[in-house]
Design a protein that fits this description.
With about 300 residues, this protein is mostly helical. The protein has ten helices and no strands. InterPro entries: Lag1/Lac1-like, TLC-dom.
């Protein structure tokens, strides 16, 4: 029974991935609708499990085959090896995520105008490419929780843990409720600035302060706009124009979701405070450009030695 479920799930995963390839690469816009079951069937859960395993395995292979050889060529200080490999992985995924988000969802009106986010919600069908990318994104944050535990812990471990758990719950709930629109906007706003940050770190690890500075400026601006302007706007439109407001009744799951949405705002504000500190110190010339919350070998928390 379980073998049949995983065989069906594997075939389903391959179908979703190949359809995504057609949409992203070949520009296929044919509407091949797929009714999401919202994790209510063993097959649906098995599909997600396969995507998570592929996520973990793929980046381990890429790290061994690509990122490690790159570090031997470009990395200036071997003490930054762990950070270099981490930034390579993050930069690769977030660049892929942002590109695919605009390529697959870019033709949707609600993707650019939040006032259309909660209109015409009676059709819960979604294209295979849209569903697959959504599950890949959800798997990234779930795998991120695993990586937080198995990889050396950073100074912002607690903030990252709360951030990942909140994002997983938001994306998971929206998927189960067939409200992929808000989930897509949430993860796009979260990801859009990250490729610039990771690329700036890579330049720094490779010894190019100029390249890091040139990338840090657009990163800071995009982070401020996406997470401290557009994201609070998303919260506003969800609270005052969402399904609960329209029916004049908020369900408990909706109240919980709105609380999670708002929980991320102070975390974003804290991170931007650190970004502003970096910028001020760099302008004053008192410190080289570096990430206050995670940089070089000092970004990792050294475990306390227990004494008997």
């Amino acid at each position: 029974m379980s073998a049949a479920i995983f065989q069906e799930a594997f075939d389903h995963t391959v179908f979703l991935a190949t359809e995504t390839y057609k949409v992203v690469v070949q520009g296929d816009t044919e509407d091949k609708s797929f009714q999401s079951k919202g994790f209510t069937s063993p097959t649906e859960l098995a599909v997600f499990a396969i995507i998570c395993l592929c996520n973990l395995a793929f980046f381990e292979v890429v790290k061994a085959a690509v990122f490690n050889p790159m570090s031997k060529v470009f990395l200036k200080n071997k003490k930054n090896l762990i950070s270099f490999l981490f930034s390579c992985r993050e930069c690769m995924f977030y660049t892929f995520s942002v590109f695919c988000a605009f390529r697959v969802f870019g033709q949707e009106r609600w993707f650019y105008d939040l006032k259309y986010l909660w209109t015409l919600m009676e059709n819960y069908e979604t294209k295979p490419a849209q569903k697959f990318l959504y599950l890949v994104e959800l798997s990234w944050y779930l795998c991120g929780i695993v990586r937080l535990y198995i990889e050396p812990r950073k100074k912002d471990y607690k903030q990252m843990f709360v951030h990942h758990v909140s994002t997983i719950l938001l994306l998971g709930i929206s998927y189960c409720l067939h409200q992929l629109r808000i989930g897509v906007v949430i993860y796009t706003l979260h990801n859009i600035a990250d490729p610039l940050l990771q690329a700036a770190k890579l330049f720094k690890y490779c010894g190019s302060e100029l390249g890091a500075t040139l990338l840090f400026v657009p990163f800071a601006l995009s982070f401020f706009v996406s997470r401290l302007i557009l994201y609070p706007m998303l919260c506003y439109y969800t609270i005052f124009f969402g399904p609960g407001y329209q029916r004049k009744l908020y369900y408990k799951i909706e109240i919980f979701s709105m609380g999670l949405l708002c929980l991320l705002i102070p975390i974003h504000a804290y991170w931007f405070y650190l970004i502003a500190k970096i910028a001020i110190k760099s302008i004053r010339g008192t410190k080289k450009l570096e990430d206050e919350r995670s940089d070089s070998e000092d970004e990792y928390v050294k475990p306390d030695k227990k004494t008997k």
